[in-house]
Amino acid sequence: MNHSPNDFTAGSLAGTFAERLIAWQAEHGRHDLPWQNTRDAYRIWLSEIMLQQTQVATVIPYYTRFLERFPDVAALAGAAQDDVMALWSGLGYYSRARNLHRCAQVVVAEHGGRFPSDPEALASLPGIGRSTAAAIAAFAYDAHAAILDGNVKRVLARVFGIEGFPGTPKIEREMWTLAETLLPERDLPAYTQGMMDLGATLCGRGKPRCGECPFDSDCVAHATGRERTLPTSKPKKAQPERYVDVLVIGAGERVLFERRPDSGIWGGLWSLPELTPPTDAPDADDAALRARLSAHAAALGAEEGTVQSLEPLQGLTHVFTHFRLHLRPWQVTLATPGETRTSASPSNGARHAWLDAAGVAAAGLPSPIRKITDALSIGSPNDGQLSLPT
DNA sequence: AAACCGTGGAA
DNA sequence: TTTCCAAGGTT
């Protein structure tokens, strides 16, 4: 690093880094977020997991709903995974939800229902890494531990003039060391919140308000006009395109859904059946494709009836962090000779489920799949009735 | 070590 | 429109 933390005591403003940050937080920081003003480790843990790679405004409604349904760790530990996934549906990074569920069960089974106060013990739990462990331990138990999230990386890169993409092990090690060096002896919750608040407000990614910053006179980036080039951005690479055909198979008042494996994209969620795994080139809309689609639908829906019609629906493109997925839905109508015998809600561990409108509304679906069902008014909030043309 | 894992808001 | 990335962790 170009600067040592001790340089702050020599700045024109009095006080150490931590003292200035804590004073700034008391005056200008955030104090009324839903997960603040509590020492309940369960609530703090839940917020930290939801906030991983996710903005505050996005998390708030999910957090509120989740707490209403699962007010404590025992309630969450005893829940069915499908119910947890349904409440997480739309929030993304679904391994967080599965790890959250597993973590609750470990806390109940191995820690008597109380979260450990030791950051290392916390970090050994599913879904809790070094930074999240430190945040929980600091907020709930006043632990002397440093966080290193995106906010802290940005603040440190700018104030100390640290060059290099913070995602690399070398820069990250350097930042962990610095973050721990800067820790105060006391007021860990205010200090930790201050790091987050400074990075999320004044020292944001876009246009930092250096005039209001407590480190204005000492900030290397500000002094050298590098506010916009620090932290060094991630090296970018071309995003692959992927194409997939999905089937909306309707029989009577129900539609067929397929549970995705825990590993991979949308792990543990309910989705529409795919013809084949995604490919790197679009399928041509030709007779051979239609024949394959029809055969696949017939195999999946054999118990319910025979394929009566096959129609292409409006396609859509979904953008992920590391690729773009082009979804082409096909509507398949089955001629049903008799009663549909299958259940309306997914049974535990089943790979397929015929869901009615209420079942679709309650299921954990990926966002773009929800868009498709909404467009067809299947289980959408406005229209609880299934209205597939027959 | 580098890839993988969602979604939506902001510029 | 495109690009970036947010209270990161796991493999």
UniProtKB/TrEMBL annotation:
Its cofactor is [4Fe-4S] cluster. Adenine glycosylase active on G-A mispairs. MutY also corrects error-prone DNA synthesis past GO lesions which are due to the oxidatively damaged form of guanine: 7,8-dihydro-8-oxoguanine (8-oxo-dGTP). PROSITE patterns: ENDONUCLEASE_III_1 (PS00764), ENDONUCLEASE_III_2 (PS01155). GO terms for molecular function: 4 iron, 4 sulfur cluster binding; 8-oxo-7,8-dihydroguanine DNA N-glycosylase activity; adenine/guanine mispair binding; metal ion binding; oxidized purine DNA binding; purine-specific mismatch base pair DNA N-glycosylase activity. It is an enzyme of class 3 (hydrolase). It holds the Pfam family HhH-GPD. Residues 50-201 form the HhH-GPD domain. This is Adenine DNA glycosylase. Keywords: 4Fe-4S, DNA damage, DNA repair, Glycosidase, Hydrolase, Iron, Iron-sulfur, Metal-binding. Its EC number is 3.2.2.31. Gene3D superfamilies: Helix-hairpin-Helix base-excision DNA repair enzymes (C-terminal) (1.10.1670.10), Hypothetical protein, domain 2 (1.10.340.30), Nucleoside Triphosphate Pyrophosphohydrolase (3.90.79.10). It catalyses: Hydrolyzes free adenine bases from 7,8-dihydro-8-oxoguanine:adenine mismatched double-stranded DNA, leaving an apurinic site. SUPFAM superfamilies: DNA-glycosylase, Nudix. Binds 1 [4Fe-4S] cluster. CDD domains: ENDO3c (cd00056), NUDIX_DNA_Glycosylase_C-MutY (cd03431). InterPro entries: A/G_AdeGlyc_MutY, DNA_glycosylase, Endonuclease-III-like_CS2, Endouclease-III_FeS-bd_BS, HhH-GPD_domain, HhH_base_excis_C, HhH_motif, MIG/MutY. One of its GO terms (biological process) is base-excision repair. Belongs to the Nth/MutY family.
